[in-house]
Write a structure and sequence with these properties.
5 helices; single chain
């Protein structure tokens, strides 16, 4: 596998730390799936069964995750408010 392709595969399996730290207060489940490095089908299946790695909010047909819950599971301290 070429070096460039290898880097692209790694980027697709997770989310860079800077992107995680820049997340809004809440975001779609697909974004949380990227942060955890899990696929879409697996993530939605876990959410439907109540087994997602962090609490998931169900708003209508949409699943949302809060930054605070994601940070708690990933062991990231909340940045100080400006």
């Amino acid at each position: 596998m070429s070096e460039q392709r290898s880097r692209n595969v790694k980027a697709a399996r997770g989310m860079p730390q800077a992107e995680v730290l820049a997340l809004p207060v809440s975001f779609p489940l697909d974004t949380a799936n990227r942060a955890f490095g899990i696929g879409r089908t697996t993530g939605y299946g876990l959410a439907k069964r109540g087994e997602y790695p962090c609490p998931v909010l169900r708003i209508g047909n949409a699943y949302r995750v809060t930054r605070a819950d994601l940070f708690a599971v990933l062991g990231i301290e909340q940045p100080a408010a400006a």
